[in-house]
Amino acid sequence: MNGEMNNSKAIEIDNVVIRFSGDSGDGMQFTGTLFAKLSAILGNEISTFPDFPAEVRAPQGTLEGVSGFQVHIGSKKVYTPGDEVDVLVAMNPAALKVNAKTIKKNGIIIFDSDAFQTSNLQKAGFKTENPFEELSFPETIQLIPVPLTTLTKKSLEEFDLDNKKVLQSKNMVALGLICWLFNRPIDKAYHFLEKKFNKKPNILRVNIKALTDGFNYGENLQLSISTFIIEKSYETPKGKYTSINGNKAVAWGLIAAAEKADKHLFLGSYPITPASDIMHELALRKDIGVKMVQAEDEIGGITMAIGASFAGCLAATSTSGPGMALKSEGMGLAVMAELPLVIIDVMRSGPSTGMPTKTEQSDLFQALYGRSGESPLVVIAASTPDNCFNYAYIASKIALEYITPVILLTDGYLGNGSSLWKLPKLEELPEIIPHYVKPGMEGCKVTTRDEKTKIPYRSIPGMKGFCHCNGGLEKDYTTGNLSTDPINHEKMVLARQEKINNVTNIIPDIQIEGNEDADLLVVGWGSTYGHLISAINLLNNEGYKVALAHFNYLFPLPKNTEKVIKRYKKVVVCELNTGQFAAYLSSKISQVNFFKYNRIQGQPFTVNELIAYFKQLLS
């Protein structure tokens, strides 16, 4: 390790992966988010991965309490947060130990030397006073000890703060140092701090002082590493960009859809990890007429939303796996009553409470089949944090135009992670034309529908000449009255199914990415897109022939699904569950032997593991 100071010039690099890691109370999530936002407004591509424990505050200094935020920034398209870390910022020995296997051989570890005391080393399970030797780090890894605790105390000695409050600003000193290391102008960071702490001026001054002193520490001492420059992405189309996480993107997609459809937006929900931020974001938007009600429970949330839909709102409810189970009866009611409704499931590791802060794709079967009776509805899935906006908008469009509930699947990886997002213009978004009654249709029944598409004509209570009743009991196809006639029931079941089947007329065909003449077709859905396309691009660059078919529309499937899949001799389905999408495809497509690659560890795939498995299939 080179411990000498130098005056090296800045080195230009294409991309870098940085991980901020410490106790769950060390502010790692805020620090990483701020650095990601700063990089986004400077024109870099970004992908982030927040990874934190479920406990509100796990014991300090323990492995179980480690919270991390990983950010991948680049001058070209970035698809994933990265498998391995170029720079680790470790606030304590536990953070070092938890992340030891992820550091690249030529990586950099910046650590708080004040925290590497005997007591903290023992809490983290180290047996010696030299954790770096104990972890067998190669000499190519550069260690940068920085007395973050001491620096923070000295920085804030002019403020009347107790020791606990002072140490809460260690993360800002660390962020300032990383901003220096990667040539990030901290005046841009001031803007974000001012926005967050605009009502707490003293806290704002404290954070700005700590941030500035962290930057100046690197600037004045010229630490034993070169600084780095990552140019902005010139591949990105012109426009206004920001960093956005999936939950916020979902909220904004719903807002945009309500505005486009000229509807009031109503969200009825109950707090649940990792979906609660959708509620929080929409609660802030009262200024534009958004109505958000925190219900007493999950059932109350969806039934409130159903009532709002009946009254003419664009209605939505958000939840995660356990909440989906509780909402199932409400979803069945919305199917039977044929009311537009958007149900957002931000999936997590289950079942039950499971691992609530970890990601998984294990709610697919629940979304497809988890209701009583013949209860068809549309199921779609977002695949990146930024396109959560698009698919929330599309879910709303389908719900209003086909008069049906629509389930939008995201997960903890998408909901908490962020990526670069181009702010769209409302006039550029697709039109939303709700399927309403037309002039001259006065007196039509609640079951009156377009006989070609089987979409019912909606009327809103209070519209003159369109008085009607609705509910969960079966209705006569012609009169709209309650009916228990067996032949009529079958006719209504088939009509509701045909309506959903006809959604295939508006969804796009599945597209092949990579090498269309591939020896191996990789199939994925939802949040696995970034890792799959990264692995496929790298393999094709090595001379292999691999293609990707990635699904966002799950029920109904795109029209050309069977045709595309049967073009390839080898097909592997990759998903973060035990093989639900593979089983679903097998039920729809005969005579195809699907290989499966599954992971259920609460973590996304890594690109390296996918490459290794695909090479095995190709050998």
Architecture overview:
With 619 residues, this protein is an alpha/beta fold. It folds into four domains: 10-230, Pyruvate-ferredoxin Oxidoreductase, domain 3; 243-428, 3-Layer(aba) Sandwich (Rossmann fold), CATH 3.40.50.970; 449-505, no CATH class; 512-618, Rossmann fold, CATH 3.40.50.920. It has 21 helices and 22 strands. The strands form five sheets. The chain has a seven-stranded mixed beta sheet, with helices on both faces. The protein has a six-stranded mixed beta sheet with strand order 3-4-2-5-6-7, sandwiched between helices. It has a five-stranded mixed beta sheet with strand order 17-19-18-21-22, with helices on both faces. Helix 1 (28-41) runs parallel beside helix 7. The longest helix has 21 residues, at 201-221. The two termini are 41 Å apart. The model is unreliable at 1-7 (pLDDT under 50).
Question: How are the SSEs placed, and which strands pair?
Answer:
Layout: E1 11-12, E2 15-23, H1 28-41, E3 45-51, E4 66-74, E5 85-90, H2 93-99, E6 103-112, H3 118-123, H4 131-134, E7 142-146, H5 148-155, H6 163-167, H7 170-181, H8 186-196, H9 201-221, E8 228-229, E9 241-245, H10 246-260, E10 265-269, H11 276-283, E11 291-294, H12 298-310, E12 314-319, H13 321-337, E13 341-347, H14 364-369, E14 378-381, H15 387-402, E15 405-411, H16 412-416, E16 418-422, H17 486-501, E17 512-514, E18 520-525, H18 529-541, E19 546-551, E20 553-555, H19 561-565, E21 571-575, H20 580-588, E22 594-598, H21 607-618
Parallel strand pairs: 1-8, 2-5, 5-6, 6-7, 10-11, 10-12, 12-13, 13-15, 14-15, 18-19, 18-21, 21-22
Antiparallel strand pairs: 2-4, 3-4, 9-16, 14-20, 17-19
